[in-house]
Each structure stands twice: as C-alpha cells, then as structure tokens.
Amino acid sequence: MLEALWVEKYRPATTKEYVFPNNQIKDAVTSILETGNLPHLLLSGGPGTGKTALARALVNDLELEDIDVKMINTSDENSVEVFRNKIKDFAETFAYGKFKVIILDEADYASPAYQAALRNLMEVQSDTCRFILTCNYPNKIMDAVKSRCQHWKFPRPDKNEVTMRAAQILVSEKIKFDLALLDKFISLGYPDTRKIINLLQQHSIDGELRNPAAEVDNQDWEFEIIELIGKKDYSKIREVVAKNAGLDDYERLYRLLYQNIQAAQAVVYIADYLYRHAFVSDPEINFAALCEKLGALE
To answer: What are the tens digits of pLDDT across the range 175-233?
Structure first.
C-alpha cells in the first residue's frame, strides 16, 4: 500500500482546521458560512500559501452536494474547448443542492479568450453557480473578471507558524528531528508550505529526518547552499551552482539568497543581478559575478 502524501493527509478538511493568513479573510469566511451566500472569489498569493486549501475547506463547510462541485486545474486545461465542454455545460445544468461551485485552480494560466468567455458566464449564471478562482499572479487576470469577484490576497505565512506546523506534522508522524535541521528545510522552501511538507516527507527515513546535504545525492545540492550561506562561503556556492544548476533554477536561486541573506547591500546586489539575468546570454556567469560581489562584502 502506498504511503499517504503528507500534503494531502494534513490538508485542512474544514475552515475550523485552517490557519487563516489574517483576520480579514477569516471574518469574510465566517460571514459566508453564517449567511450561506458565497460570492465569486479570487484568491491570489504565492505558491503554498493556502489558497486552494481554503477553497476546498470552504466548499466542504457549505455542505454542497458532491455532484454540484467541479474543480479544474487551469494550468492543464486552459483552452476554449475545455471552457465550453466542461465549465459552461456544468454551470448551465440544474443544481441538485443550493447551488453549484466551480473552482478554477491556477486561473492565471487561462487564455484571454478563456477569460473573456468566463466573465459573461459568471454574470449570466450567478443565480445558480459561483466561481472560486485561485492564482499566483493576479495581474494576469483581466479586470472584467476581477470586477466580478471578491479579491482575497494571501500574504506570506508567518515563518514561525510554518515552522510550528512542520514540527507538528513530524511529531504526528513520529519522526525524530533536530530543530536546526528543520530550520534548513524551512529556509529552503519558505514561503511555499506545500514544498516544505513534501521535502520533510522525502527526507524522513526510518523514523528520522535526515540531512540531505550529508548524503550523496546531487538532487539535494540546494541544501548545501543553505549551509554555505550560513558560512558566507560564496565562492563555494558558485562552484555548487555551476556543477548542478539548470537554466530553470537560477531565478529560484536568487530568491533563495534574498530570503537568507539579511545585509542591505546584499539585497541591492541580488536585485541588480536578477534584473541582468533577464538579458544575459550566460546565466551561470551572471550568478558567479553576484557571488563574487557578495563575497566582497566580508
């Protein structure tokens, strides 16, 4: 039997189990549950900040019929054909319960034509069908769609709360762990709580949280970077990145440096070289130059 995925096992099933990012969203959810009146919603924020988890928990608490709820991952299904065959047909059919709900996850992947068709449907079918859209980049959602929704913005979760949640999961799974090692996982994945939980499960072996930097596994080279940042060994960081990083890794590496280096001048350098990254022909050389700059701050 396959081991349950921790991100699913510990996903909140109801809003009572959900840790709200702020009181504004909590009060709005409370009002919806008290009145039973669900508006169209747009939930925006970074990956792993709890948008989809809240959408699912809210729908569960509204006690809708399963047949009246449809969830679509728009990053996979973003064509006009999908809209016509799955969304429009579903929205226009009779609801078995109070009303229907369509959750469009990662709605910022929807094409302009998709969104143009959606805005009309949201208005025409609003008496019987409500939409919950989640997205990382609200600027990619057209204004006509935004104007039909209540927009809830999800800030980054508090780092201490993420650490506490991660520790609770490890305790529940009877995993032995060191707080200093747990902090490394938090530093690597924050603010993406989902990524942190997946990393913890991946490296929990024989009832113990293992330090991947101590293992022979090139896939865990980012953990080594976390350790090297603590040692301010930027020359070694340059070597590790040159050996392991692919073209798609560099933007994440700039973010990793930004989140773990507190010096004001370092932030200026990171911003400068991240900007250059969009134009250079060799991102490895650009990143190496940044490491040299950071090393000169000593």
So the answer is: 999 999 999 999 988 888 999 999 999 999 999 999 876 554 555 788 889 889 989 99
Neighbours of 144 (CB within 10 A): 14
Terminal alpha carbon distance of the chain: 52
User: Which residues partner with 44 through β-bridges?
Assistant: 135, 153
Alpha-carbon distance of 190 to 50, in angstroms, equals 13
Phi, psi of 104, deg, nearest 5: -105, 95
Helix and strand element counts for the chain (H, E): 15, 7
pTM for the full predicted model: 0.78
Residue 191 preceded by cis peptide, ω within 30 = yes
Q: Which one-letter DSSP state was computed for residue 87?
A: I
Residue 1 one-letter amino acid? M
Fold of 157-210: Helicase, Ruva Protein; domain 3 (1.10.8)
Nearest residue to 20 (alpha-carbon basis) of 57, 47, 46, 67: 57
Q: At what angle do helices 179-189 and 221-231 cross, to 10 degrees?
A: 110
211: left (phi over 0), alpha (psi -120 to 50) or beta: beta
What gap in Å lies between CA 236 and CA 286, rounded to an integer? 16
pLDDT digits (tens, 9 = 90+) for 112-136: 989 999 999 999 999 999 999 999 9
Instruction: For domain 6-154, give the fold.
Output: Rossmann fold (3.40.50)
CB-CB contact of 224 with 28 (8 Å): no
Distances (CA, A) of 47 to 135, 154, 191: 9, 10, 8
